């Protein structure tokens, strides 16, 4: 199976996203300030959206592997780790200094989307577009 490691990573990331969301909703809801709770929820939301994007790229890659797809996947994975991870750590610890890491993760997430755009623009034409 092509990209088995990526598929496993996304599957485990999905499980982690559900666990983080449930943990936030049930275990943290009464113990965090509204601002820290919002930060935690933002981490969960961005992680979920980028895992869905990774699933889409993996499905696309299974049908048509192109240079740049793995770069987008890698940037999104690193971006989620830094962006969502720093928001989780910030919410759980209250250490504001961890918030300095979040923008770096955001830049990696943006970089993944830009890498995907370049991948599409550089892809050879697959024939005529029926619609």
UniProtKB/TrEMBL annotation:
Pfam families: DUF423 (PF04241)
Recorded topology in the membrane: Multi-pass membrane protein
Domain of life according to the entry: Bacteria
Location in the cell: Membrane
Keywords: Membrane, Transmembrane, Transmembrane helix
Keyword set includes Glycoprotein: no
Keyword hit for rRNA-binding: no
Transmembrane segments: 43-60, 72-91, 97-121
Family as reported in the entry's similarity comment: Belongs to the UPF0382 family.
Protein name: DUF423 domain-containing protein
Organism field: Halomonas koreensis
């Amino acid at each position: 199976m092509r990209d088995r490691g990526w598929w496993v990573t996304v599957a485990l990331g999905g499980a982690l996203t559900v666990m983080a969301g449930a943990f936030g909703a049930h275990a943290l809801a009464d113990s965090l300030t509204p601002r820290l709770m919002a930060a935690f929820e933002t981490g969960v939301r961005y992680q979920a959206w980028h895992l869905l994007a990774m699933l889409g790229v993996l499905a696309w890659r299974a049908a048509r592997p192109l240079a740049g797809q793995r770069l987008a996947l890698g940037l999104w994975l690193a971006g989620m780790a830094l962006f969502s991870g720093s928001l989780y750590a910030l919410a759980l610890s209250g250490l504001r200094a961890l918030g300095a890491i979040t923008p770096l993760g955001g830049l990696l997430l943006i970089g993944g989307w830009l890498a995907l755009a370049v991948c599409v623009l550089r892809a050879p034409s697959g024939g005529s577009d029926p619609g």
